[in-house]
Automatic annotation (TrEMBL):
It catalyses: arsenic triglutathione + 2 [thioredoxin]-dithiol + 2 S-adenosyl-L-methionine + H2O = dimethylarsinous acid + 2 [thioredoxin]-disulfide + 3 glutathione + 2 S-adenosyl-L-homocysteine + 2 H(+); arsenic triglutathione + [thioredoxin]-dithiol + S-adenosyl-L-methionine + 2 H2O = methylarsonous acid + [thioredoxin]-disulfide + 3 glutathione + S-adenosyl-L-homocysteine + H(+); arsenic triglutathione + 3 [thioredoxin]-dithiol + 3 S-adenosyl-L-methionine = trimethylarsine + 3 [thioredoxin]-disulfide + 3 glutathione + 3 S-adenosyl-L-homocysteine + 3 H(+). It comes from Autumnicola lenta. This is Arsenite methyltransferase. It holds the Pfam family Methyltransf_31. Residues 59-199 form the Methyltransferase domain. Signal peptide: none annotated. The keyword S-adenosyl-L-methionine applies. It is an enzyme of class 2 (transferase). Keywords: Methyltransferase, S-adenosyl-L-methionine, Transferase.
Amino acid sequence: MSYLETTRNVYRDAALTPDVGLCCTTNPIWELPGLKIPKIMQEMNYGCGSTVNPRDLSNNPKILYVGVGGGMELLQFAYFSRKNDGVIGVDSVDEMLEASRKNFKEAELQNNWFKSDFVELKKGDALDLPVADNSIDVAAQNCLFNIFKTEDLKKALEEMYRVLKPHGRLVMSDPSCEQPMNDELRNDERLRALCLSGSLPLKEYIKALTDVGFGTIEIRARKPYRILDPKHYPTEELIYIESVEVAAIKDPMPEDGPCVFTGKAAIYYGDEDYLDDKKGHVLLQNQPLAVCDKTAAALADLNRNDIFISESTFHYDGGGCC
Ligand SMILES: C[S@@+](CC[C@H](N)C(=O)[O-])C[C@H]1O[C@@H](n2cnc3c(N)ncnc32)[C@H](O)[C@@H]1O
């Protein structure tokens, strides 16, 4: 059996018998006026963060969500789009599609604004999406892509890139891990399927995105997620796993490389009203300007004593250079 099949089996079981401790975090879930999330959806929250951000959802976007789970985030997306088939949900596990379909019926009873028809569920694989090229404004996945091994991750990202319109965005939430994991952990198909042993260091995760062509990357959140300890897992050292929320935008790749926003800001504190680096960045006196890592490095290279560059907060929420 391949690890992809093991993964499907794990989620078949998780669809038939909801498993509250699987994947999800105890982070508070979105509370929005008039939005009631059925208990069963909360119990089937198999994600590790949020991919739903109102900032991505203006102008009536066509939304794709891959790996539906219990349907909670699709309901949250539908809260913003509120039209028939506004959100496409794709999953490769029949039982998960069936469970989410049932959960949407429950959501209808609890939310008078919601109709199951707002979500179009499709059987399909993240590695071969049943979705047309250039047809999606916002694509999302939560806690699925970290399971994929290198070549499959590449395929899954290429598929997302293919279906997105120019300037469309892929919003993702996944575990990440800066420590090396041993082969026993890496090759344990069940731990991988449970989102515990497939995660990459953040830099590699970002590189996988820029390698398929996404020109802009936003690191929106980075939080503690899990510990793999020697008593419970096949490891000699304690391994700390985080979860990250990342958006990858299908902007053209700049000639000098991708713009990766990790939450850095530059502040000019010289004597003039502003500083213009003549490369498209104007820093107003004592006003922070969010900068991508590339611009932060270029400003640092100026070796001036009147520009402060902050560390990455890993909490970029829009605006700034590029
Ligand atoms: C960890 S769960 C995450 C569910 C949901 N995103 C959430 O946040 O609750 C992974 C989901 O991906 C689905 N899945 C597993 N392998 C898949 C594949 N190759 N293609 C599409 N979906 C897949 C599973 O059935 C499950 O719904």
